[in-house]
Each structure stands twice: as structure tokens, then as C-alpha cells.
Design brief:
Oligomer: single chain
Number of domains: 1
Shape: globular
Strand order of the largest sheet: 1-2-3-6-7-4-5
Number of strands: 7
Number of helices: 2
Structural class: alpha+beta
Strand content: 25-35%
Helix content: 10-25%
Order of helices and strands: EEEHEEHEE
Length: about 100
């Protein structure tokens, strides 16, 4: 039986908390304005933690809106108080889109 990954990402693949595999959409990075539009959709958001691999957290739509207010000035820099900058990426599974916020040092 094949191993099912959960809450993991590598290269252009992401596995959610249910084990569903998502593929990175193009373009690789999306602008801050597009992130803001997607946050308003009232869907959950993935946070890809710096260091990669198994660092995927999930935010409800309400949590994503609060999180957005703490990071919106730090998309592609300058770093926040923890030394992190953030980027937005889109992931696709069939006809569904998932917004992910990627942290980096």
C-alpha cells in the first residue's frame, strides 16, 4: 500500500490534512493584491513554514483574515519582528484553488 502524505510540501506538490495532493499553479508567486482578493473568499489557507517539508499549518477563513493583517506589510519584505518575509502561492487540485502563504527567512 502506498504511503499517504499529510500536511507536507516539496517542490511543486503539497499534501493537505486529508492526504489530497495539490500542484503548484503558475505563476509561482502571486502579488500582494491577489493575495488580498483570495483572503476575502472565505476559504481556508495553508501556511508553509520556512524550512519546508512537513511544516504546513491550516488557517480557517477567519484565522486567515487575522493572519493577513499581521503579515500584509511583509509580503516580499521587509521582515517582520521574527525576521520572516511572506510570499503567496496558488495550488490547484482539479478545478479547486488553494492559497498558501509561504514563510521565509
Amino acid at each position: 500500500m502506498a504511503e499517504v502524505y499529510r500536511n507536507r510540501f516539496e517542490d511543486d506538490r503539497l499534501w493537505d490534512d486529508q492526504g489530497v495532493e495539490w500542484s503548484r499553479a503558475r505563476p509561482r508567486w502571486i502579488p500582494e493584491q491577489r493575495i488580498r482578493q483570495l483572503i476575502r473568499r472565505d476559504q481556508r489557507v495553508a501556511v508553509l513554514e520556512s524550512g519546508g517539508g512537513e511544516g504546513v499549518s491550516w488557517l480557517t477563513a477567519a484565522e486567515a483574515k487575522v493572519f493577513w493583517h499581521t503579515i500584509k506589510g511583509h509580503i516580499e519584505g521587509p521582515p517582520d519582528d521574527h525576521g520572516l518575509v511572506y510570499s503567496g502561492t496558488l495550488w490547484r487540485c482539479e478545478d479547486r484553488l488553494l492559497l498558501a502563504i509561504q514563510e521565509s527567512c
